[in-house]
Amino acid sequence: MVIYGVALLAFCMLAGLIVGELLGRLIGVNANVGGVGFAMLLLILLTNLSRYRLQLAPMTQEGVGFWSAMYIPIVVAMAAKQDVVTAVSSGWVAVVAGVLAVAASFAMIPVLARFGGGETDDS
């Protein structure tokens, strides 16, 4: 049933937020540190565990799979928007660092493609 997917999603989100808040307080930051990431990892772990160990009904597995597939892109987009708004309002150093990180990532694509053994289209 789809409702089990919603329940699993809610559990993972709450657990991730709690872990993120605790981690933030542990390192002395008054913010949630990595809560969304912890929630996603927990969701992936529990989704895979449900396939192999819990032996859920096929309809229940479909519900869990649907909500886990919906959760990751939506939350990543929300977190990315918050990061960009915070970076722009914090000053240009954060924006320049973000642009440089993206440029470095794009520059590494051909290097990684050569190591991966994939053929590149040199037309």
What does this structure look like?
With 123 residues, the chain is an all-alpha fold. Helix content is 83%, strand content 0%. The chain has one domain (2-116). The chain is built from 4 helices and no strands. Helix 2 packs antiparallel against helix 3 and helix 3 packs across helix 4. The longest helix has 33 residues, at 58-90. InterPro entries: Maln_transptMadL.
Task: Tally the beta strands.
Answer: 0
Mean of the pLDDT scores?
77
| Helix-strand string | HHHH
Helix content: over 70%
Biggest sheet overview: none
Low-confidence stretches: none
Q: In oligomeric terms, what are we looking at?
A: single chain
Using only CA atoms, what is the Rg? 19 Å
Distance from first to last alpha carbon: 50 Å
Quote the beta fraction.
under 5%
Organism: Elongatibacter sediminis
Transmembrane segments: 6-24, 31-52, 64-80, 92-113
InterPro entries: Maln_transptMadL
Keywords: Membrane, Transmembrane, Transmembrane helix
Give the SSE layout.
Elements: H1 2-27, H2 35-52, H3 58-90, H4 92-116
Helix pairs in contact: 1-2, 1-3, 2-3, 3-4
Identify the notable features of this structure and list them briefly:
mainly alpha
Question: In summary, what is this structure?
Answer:
The chain crosses the membrane at residues 6-24, 31-52, 64-80, 92-113. This is Malonate transporter subunit MadL. By secondary structure, this protein is mainly α.
